[in-house]
Specification:
By secondary structure, the chain is an alpha+beta fold. It folds into two domains: about 1-70, no CATH class; about 70-149, 3-Layer(aba) Sandwich (Rossmann fold), CATH 3.40.50. Helix content is about 50%, strand content about 15%. It has helices at about 10-20, 25-30, 35, 55-65, 85-100, 110-115, 140-149; strands at about 70-75, 105, 120-125, 130-135. The strands form two sheets. Strands 1-2 form a two-stranded parallel ribbon. Strand 1, helix 5 and strand 2 form a beta-alpha-beta unit. The chain starts with 7 loop residues before the first helix and ends with a helix.
Length: about 150
């Protein structure tokens, strides 16, 4: 959740305080997101509500990861992000999978991104699992064939 009447800095400090992080710890954590934020998030003097949806997504993702979860659930994380940021997010998710043993559940309609990032894809239709498979080099073609039927 985003508390949109806060600035990103205030929000990150609040989320950090819930996890016993000092302001210095939060600032140190945020350094790894400078490229991801692309100069559009911090030190802008804006409330979260005044950011674009894509930039609000960036704030939410960085805040969620600040808590060092073992399980991360992302709903349409690539929506409203520019192509460069989408690529950076994919790389970051992949890196965290190995470095932090992070399991990420991604709900998405974007077949390209999920086949790039996910080890396993589960298709749901009206809440029922209709397909469950490990991804490989043919996954995108299989999904495209399935959805074009």
């Amino acid at each position: 959740f985003l508390i949109d009447y806060l600035t990103p800095e205030e929000y990150f400090i609040f989320i950090g305080s819930l996890n016993n992080l000092s302001i210095a710890d939060v600032n140190e954590y945020l350094k790894q997101y400078e490229e991801f934020f692309n100069g559009e998030i911090l030190s802008r003097g804006k409330y979260i509500r005044d950011f674009s949806k894509g930039n609000q997504n960036k704030v939410g993702i960085a805040a969620a990861l600040m808590q060092k979860p073992e399980l991360l659930v992302l709903d349409e994380p690539f929506a409203n992000l520019d192509p460069t940021t989408q690529i950076r997010l994919k790389s970051h998710i992949k890196a965290l999978k190995y470095s932090h043993k992070l399991t990420t559940l991604i709900s998405s309609h974007d077949l390209n991104h999920v086949t790039d990032v996910c080890d396993r894809i589960i298709l749901l239709e009206k809440g029922i699992v209709i397909k469950d498979f490990k991804t490989d080099e043919n996954s995108l073609k299989e999904l495209e064939a399935y959805f074009s039927e």
